[in-house]
Amino acid sequence: MSLYKYFLGLITSILLSTAAWAQVIDTVCPGAKNIQYYVEQHSGASYQWQLAGGTIKQGNGKNEIFVDWGIISGLFLIQVIEKNMLGCAGDTISSYVWIKPFQPEIKFPKNVCKNDTAILIASGAENYLWSNKQQGSINLIKITSDTIGYLIASDSNCSNLPDTIPFQIKLGNMPTVSFSPDAGIYQKNENVLIKYKGDNNDKLRWEIKKFNIFNKNDHSFYLIVSDTGTTEIKLFAISKDGCLNSSLKLIQVKDEHLFIPNAFTPNSDGLNENFKVVQTNMQQFYLKIMNRWGEILFETNNIYDGWDGTYKGNAVQADSYLYFVEAKGYSGKEYYRKGSITLIR
């Protein structure tokens, strides 16, 4: 004689390594109600049932019973002894019922960077319905802000135990990638401070191609801008939440200088006729020429102008004259020069 569980005509036949070699005849969810079990009926016989993990609601003494199972998961023994009409007992028939844990869960990242996609994976149930109306065990959510949702998990064998599981995904901190220097113009061979203005816990990678600096991770350092032209400073930063951000600045490196000659010859031979200051990359300029008595003979704000050795339209005599130069380069550096120039005729 065999013990059966009537469930759509399906009998589970997984054997366990037990002394009685009893079989698992059923798998149920915690709290399953009114589950039917039976053995073959013989005329005049009575049936004594015993089980653990649940309660016989009806049928004890008959060949079929209906059981309400408890909420504790595990493998539980169910037995029946048949006695004939004379009261003689037959063999004890033993089988097992597995009360399967119904413990659906979600695996998901706690922090996700803005505009990245969070992957949520559910397990432990048969059916899944997410708060964003998606179905299935995998849900993809694009994160643009802190996100709160839930999962409704259910099982065809556990229809009385749907479970609602909440989840919360926080927006990960994005690094600010703010740094000095400001974009602008700098002088050749100038020491420029490269300094990160964001969180000191952020991981950094600098790339400064003009000066062959790659993968430098210091939060501050000095750069000697030894080459002229456009320099590209690129920063990649990763926050403690793993969020990546980047920033790019362009700085101009100029070779600023002033050259002031010490003599000129305004004698109409076409050579060195004017006193001019030779400059590179000056944005502001002022030149003043004075005689030895302090009288101003010439002044200009135009760096391309020069003194032709005259005063009020008349040629001045050969002599030494004082000059004063004030200038400002595109780097912001200011220049002050004074000295004497010899006029030769």
What brief labels describe this structure?
five-stranded mixed β-sheet; Immunoglobulin-like; 4 domains; 54% strand; mainly beta; 345 residues; single chain
Please give a structural write-up.
This protein is mainly beta and 345 residues long. The chain has 4 domains: 3-99, Immunoglobulins (Immunoglobulin-like, Sandwich), CATH 2.60.40; 105-171, Immunoglobulins (Immunoglobulin-like, Sandwich), CATH 2.60.40.10; 179-254, Immunoglobulins (Immunoglobulin-like), CATH 2.60.40; 257-343, Immunoglobulin-like (Sandwich), CATH 2.60.40. Helix content is 0%, strand content 54%. It has strands at 3-5, 14-15, 23-28, 35-39, 46-51, 54-58, 64-69, 74-83, 89-99, 105-107, 111-112, 117-123, 127-130, 138-142, 147-154, 163-171, 179-180, 185-187, 190-196, 203-208, 213-216, 220-225, 229-238, 244-254, 257-259, 263-264, 278-280, 282-290, 296-300, 310-311, 314-315, 319-329, 334-343. The strands form 9 sheets. It has a 5-stranded mixed beta sheet, with no helix packed on it. A 5-stranded mixed beta sheet has the order 18-24-23-20-21, with no helix packed on it. A 5-stranded mixed beta sheet has the order 26-33-32-28-29, with no helix packed on it. Strand 2 and strand 3 form a beta hairpin. The chain starts with a strand and ends with a strand. The model is unreliable at 6-21 (pLDDT under 50).
What is the number of strand segments? 33
Number of domains: 4
What's the N-to-C terminus distance? 138 Å
Round the Cα radius of gyration to an integer and report it.
47 Å
Top-tier CATH class of the largest domain:
Mainly Beta
Taking the sheet with the most strands, its summary is:
5 strands, mixed
Structural class: mainly beta
The CATH superfamily of the largest domain appears as Immunoglobulins
